[in-house]
Amino acid sequence: MKPPASSRLFHTLRALQHENPLGLPRTGTIPRMQRGLPERRKIKDVAKVVAVSSAKGGVGKSTVAANLSLAFARQGHRAGILDTDIFGPSIPTLFNLSGEPRLSLNNQLLPMSNYGVKTMSMGYLVGEDAPVVWRGLMVMKALQQLLHEVEWGGLDVLVLDLPPGTGDTQLSITQQIVLDGSVIVTTPHTLAVKDAVKGINMFKKVNVPILGLVQNMTLFNCPHCHHDTAVFGSNDKVQRVCREHGIQVLGDIPLHPSIGDDGEQGKPTVVSEPDSSRSQAFMSIAAQIGKQIGL
Ligand SMILES: Nc1ncnc2c1ncn2[C@@H]1O[C@H](COP(=O)(O)OP(=O)(O)O)[C@@H](O)[C@H]1O
Ligand SMILES: [Mg+2]
Asked: What are the boundaries of the region Disordered (predicted)?
């Protein structure tokens, strides 16, 4: 008798887990060569690399990544941002940049700059609105180009804006690139926090240090009655997850219409409202990250 589909699926997943197709380490420290993984490479001419990640989309990852790169620049570092979200690039909009990047004499992509930050995005190469209907192999090829064929020309810190999820792109990046740390972004929503845990576990599995968690859209301060409201729920869940996983909360970013508007108009909060408390929140998070990675 044929087993029901659900049970077949269960056994297939079990078998895949057993085979460990992604070559993830199951325990502790098996030497890298023995696992057959490629050596992690440094991104050329870049001193420190920080990945901003969340397993969920729409939690403000790109907004946080963009503001952090701008905060690093304001703190005097040579900063860049690499948009690795091949299917949904946001950096061209957030930095108000478009057009095709030029090639260097060495045939490398030259980043485009605004507000003192160098940027590279798939959005420049295929157009932000173009639907990218690609198979895995093409995505991986595009990713390789973004990771290894950009002439950054000397950066103190590069922020990677990761796509949502814990799939091929995230694993390729974490396994191929020397990352100095990762920052997890979540909102207080129960579902977002659950997904944040997946992100935490992925970074733990691939031995990338987790620098901390940024809670975005935490409180909304009503402009009329000036009361703070936890629109998306209390931050107890985030605190608990951080305690359980030994991770620190790097800071809270409020839910504020101008954070969304600033980004969508191509001038993120750190440059459009540099003296606001919102901008200070990003600056403080960047300073803590900088301290941890030795910027
Ligand atoms: N703190 C915030 N307050 C208000 N709007 C925000 C905030 N953070 C992000 N947004 C908005 O939420 C939407 C999703 O943010 P985005 O950075 O694109 O998320 P992700 O990269 O995780 O998909 C965007 O329209 C953005 O402008
Ligand atoms: Mg994004």
From this structure: 258-277
Which residue shows structure tokens 């690795």? 84
pLDDT digits (tens, 9 = 90+) for 204-233: 999 999 999 999 999 999 889 989 999 888
- Ligand 1 near 90 CB (within 6 A): yes
What is the rounded average pLDDT of the residues 47-56? Answer: 94
Confidence band (pLDDT; 50, 70, 90) for 11?
A: low
- Residue 202 and residue 207: Cα distance in Å, rounded? 9
Tell me the mean pLDDT in the region 110-136. 87
In this structure, the chain runs to a length of 295
Whole-number average pLDDT of the chain: 88
- CA 283 vs CA 142, 235, 251: distances in Å: 32, 21, 10
Which pLDDT score, from 0 to 100, does residue 190 have? Answer: 92
Q: Nearest residue CA, atom 11 of ligand 1?
A: 260
- At 250, give phi and psi (nearest 5°): -80, -25
Residue with the smallest CA separation from ligand 1 atom 24 is 260
What CATH number should be reported for the domain whose range is 43-293? 3.40.50.300
C-alpha torsion sign, points 161, 165, 169, 170 = positive
For the CA of 90, the closest atom of ligand 1 is: 18
256 CA closest ligand 1 atom index: 3
Render 252-283 in DSSP notation, one character per residue. EE---HHHHHHHHTT--HHHHSTTSHHHHHHH
Rounded distance from Cα 19 to ligand 2 centre (Å): 32
pLDDT digits (tens, 9 = 90+) for 14-26: 554 454 444 444 4
Between the CA of 90 and the centroid of ligand 2 the distance, in Å, is 6
